[in-house]
Amino acid sequence: xxxxxxxxxxxxxxxxxxxxxxxxxxxxxxxxxxxxxxxxxxxxxxxxxxxxxxxxxxxxxxxxxxxxxxxxxxxxxxxxxxxxxxxxxxxxxxxxxxxxxxxxxxxxxxxxxxxxxxxxxxxxxxxxxxxxxxxxxxxxxxxxxxxxxxxxxxxxxxxxxxxxxxxxxxxxxxxxxxxxxxxxxxxxxxxxxxxxxxxxxxxxxxxxxxxxxxxxxxxxxxxxxxxxxxxxxxxxxxxxxxxxxxxxxxxxxxxxxxxxxxxxxxxxxxxxxxxxxxxxxxxxxxxxxxxxxxxxxxxxxxxxxxxxxxxxxxxxxxxxxxxxxxxxxxxxxxxxxxxxxxxxxxxxxxxxxxxxxxxxxxxxxxxxxxxxxxxxxxxxxxxxxxxxx
Amino acid sequence: xxxxxxxxxxxxxxxxxxxxxxxxxxxxxxxxxxxxxxxxxxxxxxxxxxxxxxxxxxxxxxxxxxxxxxxxxxxxxxxxxxxxxxxxxxxxxxxxxxxxxxxxxxxxxxxxxxxxxxxxxxxxxxxxxxxxxxxxxxxxxxxxxxxxxxxxxxxxxxxxxxxxxxxxxxxxxxxxxxxxxxxxxxxxxxxxxxxxxxxxxxxxxxxxxxxxxxxxxxxxxxxxxxxxxxxxxxxxxxxxxxxxxxxxxxxxxxxxxxxxxxxxxxxxxxxxxxxxxxxxxxxxxxxxxxxxxxxxxxxxxxxxxxxx
Lengths: 389, 308
What we know:
Number of strands of chain B: 9
Largest interface: A-B, 43 and 40 residues
CATH superfamily of chain B: Thiamin diphosphate (ThDP)-binding fold, Pyr/PP domains
CATH topology of the largest domain in chain A: Rossmann fold
Distance between the termini of chain B: 63 Å
Strand content of chain A: 15-25%
CATH topology of chain B: Rossmann fold
Number of domains of chain B: 1
Structural class of chain A: alpha/beta
Shape of chain A: globular
Oligomer: heterodimer
Number of strands of chain A: 16
CATH class of the largest domain in chain A: Alpha Beta
Distance between the termini of chain A: 62 Å
Largest sheet of chain A: 8 strands, mixed
Number of helices of chain B: 12
Order of helices and strands of chain A: EHEHEHEHEEHEHEHEHEHHEEHEEHEHEH
Order of helices and strands of chain B: HHEHEHEHHEHEHEHHEHEEH
Strand order of the largest sheet of chain B: 2-1-3-4-6-5-9
């Protein structure tokens, strides 16, 4: 098995494919050669497809004994130098949180997919929801850096899963891919996007003399090169807070700078991380903020509202975390209202309240009954917000 | 910084024997395998974990394993910190999960020698599920479980192997829960190689670990370690030598020979005894990594239009 990007030709065929399968194929295209998972609705098809595809390309598929073991094995494989992924849904995502934090703290690249379903607890296993937006941001204990991507179509699932690998390798961080059951099980005809660039994006490997190598000494981009076992570096990896040598420290003057770099590295690379879709935000009175499948309904709503002469726009974060605050502010300077449409009781709205640059009013359109938000509901909500003017 | 450490060279008869066995290579020098910068170490006076570490390193040496190809994966607790001192690729992972991390690492990098160092709490309580499935899967990993019958790092709470009626900080009236027999558990779950040894017999422990390292598959080695500070003291078990001698008296050698190991057996030759030591199980089972790669090769062959 090799982590080197192979020169396989990209399949540019137009195919009819389910979101979860697109996730699996996007991962393979990005060079993923290891998957460990545990069966859970509605994400199981990601595992099933990878069980079939990975052996063909010399990769490894493992069905582990539980969700915790799945992310542990994924991180273990990545420590060995291989692009690795695990996929799950809400309850499993909760179980993975401790080791997700280990990956964030010890700076181990990997991709964690969460196909969201209704909650809390076992909730609505076969129904869509967007209830894990805040769990993705704050789920693991302690302060931590985070990247979470929220694709809005089957094609985007393929593309963003592949991109998640690239970001994860570049920034040495687990990257979370969030989409909901309706997208995971949606079958669409798509043209596979070219992700060769993501496939060829690999983490920086340690070079130079082993005795001079410091495992957590970062380059200008805030990311330290990683040592691969077998290359002669013999380094220590731990979940404890470490100094540059990789060994634990509790000294405040060491911990402070280490944490500053860890927490700041994503912002330092914002030009790589940030991504969103802007539909007519510049002159919009009312801007709808929505992501994933709701973003798609909102796009239709905005088109219809514009046809009716109402100045509506859509801001759809593709990178949910860190939230693209600066760009959002710039784009929505002229807006008077925000309508935050989301399939939960109000999570994204908290971020919009904090991110908005002016005195705009913010209203929420929420559904958590296992049914996606329809364009008509968004149209009504936008009209209601405009009427308050 | 106190970098002046004194680790006596073994010059016992056993060591001479070992040196003869290793005559083709350099004699074992523990400093060659340690990160001396990290000394003094964290272990309490009298802790058995250091002896287990020595036996492990000696076994690694006797097997001629390249440090660059050695991956030590550990969890949380006293056992989890032991691995940090080894000059190899060391992974101090989360509580209970070292076997799961090791599974991913070994599948991704079959060229590495993967050794897990874990403890009775890490391996049998929070990580119990991973132990039984690692044993079932039979991936080529050597799991060294340092059994000190207590949660030492957190201050001496009851563990799944704390003996009956033992006082701990969470069993103030004595432990009433039954104990796990870790070796039998691993064997029942399918581990191909299972062995148990006490720390007082370092060369025997070394040989057992060496056999486990050599075994192609999942090898489980239970080391009866002693926790003098938080376990022994609370239960009047004496100082470290008294504790390890106590273990020795409780142990039945693999080949029972009158008087060779312990004078005590003369008086009580058939006394009941839970501590079987030595190799407890050795079975030929397919190693999972090989099995998976063979399956993958077949699939790749079929993809190219070949026969299954």
